[in-house]
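Lay summary. Proteins are chains of building blocks that fold into shapes, and those shapes determine what they do. In this project we predict the shape from the chain. Here is one chain we studied, written as its sequence of building blocks.
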Amino acid sequence: MWRSLVARFVRDEEAAGSNPVIPTKMQKLKLIRFIFLAVITAFFYSGDLYAQKSDKSKIRDLTILHWNDLHARNLPYKVSKKNDTVSYYIGGISNMLGYINKYRNENSLVLNAGDDFQGSPISTITRGRSQIELLNLFNLDAFVIGNHEFDYGRMSLDSSLKNANFDFLSANVFIKSEKKTAGKPFIIKKINGIKCGIIGITAPDLMTLTLPANVSDVVMLNIDSVITAAVKYLKKKKCDLIILLTHVGVDNDKTLAEKFHKDIDIIIGGHSHTPLFEPEIVNGVIVAQAGSYSRWLGKIDLKIDMKKDTIKEFQSRLIETVMDSSVYDKKAQQKVESMIASVQGELMKVIGTLETDWKRGYSTESNIGQWEADAVRNKLRTDITFLNAGGIRKDLPKGNITINDIWEINPFGNTMVTFNLSGKGLRELIFNNIKNYVKEIDEKGSSDMIIVSGLKIVYDSKKVLNESDDFLLEIKVNDEDIDENKIYSISTNNYVGSQFKKYFGDVSEKIEIKDSNIIDRDLFIEAVENEKIINSTLQKRVEDISNQEIKRK
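And here is the predicted shape, written in a compact code that computers can read:
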């Protein structure tokens, strides 16, 4: 380097007509200054190159692949677009796994936000074991336990999870007898040199989302406390990124983002079945969710600034898992088909014909809900039946009805229960239910509606929202005005019965619930076989004269 600098100086001096071989004092000074400037220039140039290289090495890539709320919909299923003129198959284990493998690389973090159990016969018959076996195919980094994972009881869940080859999380579900949480509170995964702390949170209202017997040994811990403790530990371990993997619903996710935006970076959620085609950004926290039933795979591409432990930039989208022979996983499909064949037996037997589509609702009445409520009332010979709309899990197009369809529509295996109540108590029950229903819709955008049989209710939602108590305008029991002195017989399912206060509030009479031990799907199968041809017309049994618009979130 020095020789080249001297040679350059000599050339410059010769060009100027000087003799550089015997340098003058002035030329010596010029040579020293020339070399000094050259060295300084070289120093800053190389430093700039180093800085550019260093800055670049501080930015690392991470891709999060996520999905949630499969509900044991293991097979691909048909969907329609453009006014039902275009239909195609999506989802199922084979398509979801195929798309994950398509986008997975060495920088990928694969997360599942819960509720893989419950929704098809194979899950019920194996008590969730089938779903753990299938999740084992995905090379998962983490799975958060959802509320439906408890539907077969905690002991069954524990038994199934013993076969899991992935980390399952739940920081806020505490098992009293074992003095530990149902899953790991958090884990640390190192992906592409990025230390990712992942905290698992299960629905805080778990105790009202499943039968009490399923969670008798469970205590729900305070979410804010467990997150605070987990964050403290993960920061001590110098995690670059802190992720909440939750099964609490998108509204609760946004609340958590508001509270913990200084500590967490990303929330991957489930429970509300919300397809967020663009993530919610709450105080800088990315909140993402991928709908339900394996229709969408969530993909978030991030650039992480390792020096600042921040997300420099990101891109997020939902990818529809359209069946594609070049993508879907054939071995996974074969495994699913083999599982189903092993338990199917009589399930594909045709037991009736549906002349009109059965369409369910959640915050609205539905023809399938009314048909089921009527079937229960006829079987148990009660005056009235109440069923929760959220218990109906599948629509059914007109055509043949199989035993398998009834299982998928009613996957929970609830039993039917009865109780008696005076007309006065019945009025209190209806008052509480309608008031709660209207306020939940106003505040949250939805509410698990009670479907009725043997009742006609007319009310004014505007009066409810104005805090007026005279909003019930009409109550008829089997076309007769309610008699407050008469004793009415009422039927419902054991889930609603066990969560009586959730749906009906406090009533002044003592409620004695008797279990018929009749499983709901057995009752509905018998009703279809007896009726053979079913034409369900939606009736207006619960009417709001204000026509309150249900907000869709």
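What the prediction tells us: The mean pLDDT is 90.
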